[in-house]
Amino acid sequence: MTKVLILNGHLKYSYSPGQLTASLVEQAETYFSKKGWEVRTTITEEAYEVPSEIEKFKWADVVVLQMPLNWMGMPWSLKKYVDDVWGAGMAGEMSLYDGRSSESPKENYGMGGLLKGQYMLSITANSPHEAFNNPAENYFDGRTEDDLLLPVHLLFKWIGLKKIPSFWAYDVMKNPQIENDFMRFDAHLKNHF
């Protein structure tokens, strides 16, 4: 049986209570459960036990991170979770520190990951799709979504997980297309799992 860990990385704000993130997490839980997969979920802004979270990563074949784009990165509560879990796990449970050896200290930085599964990012963003991959849009200067979230992708590479293409729900506050986002998310899951 395939095992999936879903991380709800939302942090509640007065202007963003997290309903869309929670709904996408629920949609993913339902999708994977119907496939017969075993599903575990963590809400990163709530209390968690670091050893239990490390065990979830070691257990999982697939990790799905559902998060809002927050000031061009991850919410601080998710960053704290990463600091806690990745920090504790890099002493031999999720990675072998930074992957380098004393014999070759200039080689293989970041390549000490011990996990063998895959990960997928699912992002909700207030930015429109047209803001990316477009040199005429000055803010991102033609950069892609993956360029913007390179540090998040590198976190998963650090622990050895392989990337599955990301899902993005765009313009969720100024020009929401939520029902279409749910349909696109379902199609994305079917296409990759």
Notable characteristics:
alpha/beta; 6 helices; 35% helix
Helix count?
6
User: Order of SSEs, N→C?
Assistant: EHEHEHEHHEH
Structural class: alpha/beta
Largest sheet: 5 strands, parallel
What integer is the average pLDDT?
Answer: 96
Give the tally of β-strands. Answer: 5
Unreliable segments (pLDDT under 50, ≥5 consecutive)?
Answer: none
Helix-residue proportion: 25-40%
Strand order of the largest sheet: 2-1-3-4-5
How large is the radius of gyration?
17 Å
Distance between the termini: 13 Å
Shape, principal axes of CA atoms = globular
Give a short overview.
The chain has 193 residues and is α/β, with parallel strands linked by helices. 35% of the residues lie in helices and 18% in strands.
